[in-house]
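Suppose you are handed only these lines of text.
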Amino acid sequence: MREAALAANDTFGTAVRLAVTRLRLSNFRSYTTAAFDGDERPVVLTGPNGAGKTNMLEAVSYLAPGRGLRQARLNDVDRRDSAASWAVAATVSGPGGNIEIGTGRDPATPRRAVRINGAPVAGQSGLADYVSVVWLTPQMDRLFLDGASARRRFLDRLIFGFDAEHSVRVSAYEHAMRERARLLKRGRRDDTWLAALEETMAGRGIAIAAARREFAGRLARACAEGSGPFPRAGIAATGHVEDWLGEGPALAAEDRMRQRLAECRDEDADSGRTTVGPHRSDFAVRHLEKDMPAEQCSTGEQKALLIAVVLADVRLQAAERNVAPVLLLDEIAAHLDSGKRRALFEEVRTLGVQAWLTGTDRLLFEGLDSDAQFFTVSDATLHRAA
Ligand SMILES: Nc1ncnc2c1ncn2[C@@H]1O[C@H](COP(=O)(O)OP(=O)(O)O)[C@@H](O)[C@H]1O
Ligand SMILES: [Mg+2]
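From them, the structure of the protein bound to adenosine-5'-diphosphate can be written out as follows.
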C-alpha cells in the first residue's frame, strides 16, 4: 500500500493543482452574498446543520460544466424571495496561471451563462478546458443500492472530466431515444424517420458504451493500486451493448444495435420503453479483498469503496491530464473512524489536491491543521477560523 501511495505521488509530481482562491456568491441559495478569499490549500468548512456548507460546495461545483453537485434546476438555486438570479464568480489557479470564471442563471435563456476571463462563452463545455471538479456527497451513499441510472450518471460524470464530448454524445443519444419513443407511442410508423433515429442511437449508443468500457478499464487499473486503507475496488461497465463490444469490433456492435432497435419497435411501442441500448447499462463495483459486489458490503465499506473510486479518479486525472481536480468531500469525515479519517487527510496531502471538506465539528479535522485553511459557516456567512 505504501508503495502504491508513493507511486501515485511520483506520477503526481508533474501535475498542477487546480485551486479556487477567490469565490463570490450572490443570491445563491441561502446566501445573499458571500465571499471566500483563500489560498491553494485544502479548505475546511465547519458549522451547524443548515448553515450553508453544502451550498458553498455546490457553488464551487458550478465552476465545472454540468448541473452541479445537487443536479438542481437553475431556478431552484436562486435565493428564495429574491428577484435576482444567482451568480458565482471565482479565481481559479491552474496550469495556465489564474483564470476568472463567472457563471449563473441567465434570465434570458434556459441555460447557465458562463464567462471566462470576462468574455462570454457559448455553452458550458468551454469550462472543461480549465476546471475539473470531482465530488462525493451524502446523497451518493446509496449509489450501490439504488437503481442503475444514478450509477450511470456517476460514471458518465467522471468521463466528462476527461472527455467533454461524452456529454454531447449522451445528450444526442437521449434526444434520439425520446424522439423514437414519442413516434412509437403516437403509433406513427414513419419508417424512414424511425430508421434515422435508430441510426443516431446506434452510432452514439455504441460510442457511449465504448467510452464507458474504456474508461472503466483505466479507472479499474487506478483503483487496483488502492489508496491507503481504502479498499481496492474492481470496476466494470456492464450491459448488453458492452458485451457486444467485448465480442467484436465497434462497427459490428453498431449494426447489431441498429438491427435490434428495428426488431423491437412493436415491443417498445407496447411497453413504452426502449429495449436495447446503453441507457440500460450499469456500473459494477466490487470489493476485491472481500470478493463481494459493493451492494452486498456494509454501509461503511460502501462509503470506503466510493472514496477509493473518487481518489482513483483524481490520480487518473493527475496522471493523464497533468491536472489535479478540485475535490469536494461533503460530510465525509463524520462517517469515517479516526484511522480512516487520518488516512484520507494523508491522501489529500499526497495527491496535493485542493479538497473542500465539510463537517459540523472542527475536531473531525484534527490532523489537517496547517495543511488546510479553516472557515466557519453560520447563518449563511463565512468566517475565517483561527
Ligand atoms: N433557493 C434557496 N433559497 C434560500 N435558501 C435555500 C435555498 N436552497 C436551500 N436553502 C437553504 O440553505 C440552507 C443551508 O443548506 P446547506 O448548505 O445544505 O446546509 P449545511 O451547512 O447543513 O450543508 C438550508 O436551510 C436550506 O433551507
Ligand atoms: Mg450539508
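What can we learn from it? DSSP finds eleven helices and 17 strands in the chain. Confidence is low (pLDDT under 50) at residues 1-11.
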